[in-house]
Amino acid sequence: MFWEHFFRLVKKHAMLFLLIPLICGFGATLIARHEFTSSDPSQNSYYGYKQSILASLGAYAPYAFMEKGGMLDGYIIQLTRAIGREMRARIDIVSRKLDDTQESAIIRDVDVVLCMVQTERTRQYFDFTKPYAINTFTLVKRKGATAPSDYHNAINAGRFVFNTDGAYYELNHEKISNAGLAPTAEDALRMIDSGQYDYTVLENYTAQRIVGMMYLENVEIAGDTDEIVEYSFAVRKGNPELLDIFKRGMVKLQNTGQFSKIQSRWVEKRFLISQSSRNVIMSSIMIGVGISLFVLLLFFVWTVMLQEEVGIRTAELSSEIEVRKKTEAQLLANQAQLIQADKLAAIGTLASGIAHEINNPNGLLLLNISFMKRLSCDLLNKLDEKKQDEEEELAGIPYSMLKEHLPNLLNDMEVASTRIGEIVEDLKDFSRSDDKEWREYFSVNDSVRAALRLLEHNLRKSTSNLEIKLTPGLPKIYGSIQKIEQVVINLILNASQSIDDPSKRISVSTSWNPDRKEVSISVEDEGCGIPKENLPVLRDPFFTTKRDTGGTGLGLSISDTIVKSHRGQLDITSKVGKGTKVTLYLPVLDEAELKDDNEKLS
Predict the structure, then answer these.
(1) Whole-model pTM?
(2) pLDDT grade, residue 157 (50/70/90)?
């Protein structure tokens, strides 16, 4: 209930919920900007990159580093190149490990060391310019160890370790008497990580780079110290002209403003922020980010809920439209079926009247033909007794020929008259209204035979290759014999209309499947076939490919409805150019099954 109420409130006042966090986030950003811009470079130490790029030059970003293409770049590199341009001097930069002051002091093949710290030892070999950069030292400690309040007094307590290649050791080695020594900063950090020592002091940007790269789980940065380290250009002693080039070059760069531009690009105020200011800024940024994420979350929730509502409503509308379309199509189909039923009813009425008019004279013919057969038999017998002349002509026919053919003529007349009576009765049955009292048990063979009698003339015109296979003794099904006859007539008519060559075959057959307890009626032809894409829509109302020749598209639709009302199904298989086979499956139900099935349908 709470969340439902909350989401309703968010939906109702979405803009208010978005506006308040945005204002808070904007305020946090202003606080961070104030702390950022108010930091005083003269009172704060350099705070270098968290992740430095190790270049073969020896210094680390932003002072010097090597790009992916192998080009050297950074604060010192650009400053050196600018001095060369101002003083018209070519300066070739040789890649060295310049943060190792001992190694630098004994290099004999270079004239200038670009990044060097002034110590007692280095001053023996080099002359220095004014410092171009100032950095602080950083106290690094083992996790869990308490940072000393005054590390100067704790240096000789046995818990510190110093790297002998570092600037701090070079500057303060005379003060260090009881501390561990390591050849490199990496070795010193490993000794702290292993628990041998608790503390060390490194240059700020060196500590940031190495701690970040080595991923030591037991080592952390405690904070900046109050000591600084200055970096200068170092010129080998005995080279005053070269020293003058760098000194005057620095002065020119400062006078022209290039020094400030280079410094602001590489060592901006963002590298001159104290630890406390950094903490305030980071806290403000985190608050702003958190608020922004909360706003985005609310906006996302509101958007998702809105999309869900739109999706639900769209689905409802689509469903309503689909139902309406189906209803309209069904109404049209029902209307067409009513029209068709009305036509059939009218035809049935006419057929009943015509059948009555035909039956009366046809009954008289049958009666007279029967009398004439008896009469002709007696006459021929009498004439034979009187030894009638065989060559004498009666009605222009020799007596011998008349005696032979007259019984056959009368039999043919009786058969034809009987055929007329059967056709009339089939028409009357087919046009009879399908009331409930006409539903009965019947054999599908009777329906097929009646359909074939009605379509005999049509089939004679369509094909000379009619094949009929009716399985004898089929179980009877329950339903409307004239409705099943209507389906069979429709299937046979479709088959005959698909044939364009009288030599092609039409096959009508019936069968019984005792396992499935169903009888089947199959109508197969060798006609044009049905395209694959039309098979799924054959039973749809008004679908027809014979509209130009009077097709309504209701034949199979009505037939399918009739079959389903008899609890059966129509199966249609076809291949273009080969023909079509339609099979009608009808279940055989006993009285108990029929009663149970009727109860389910009701």
Answers:
(1) 0.37
(2) confident
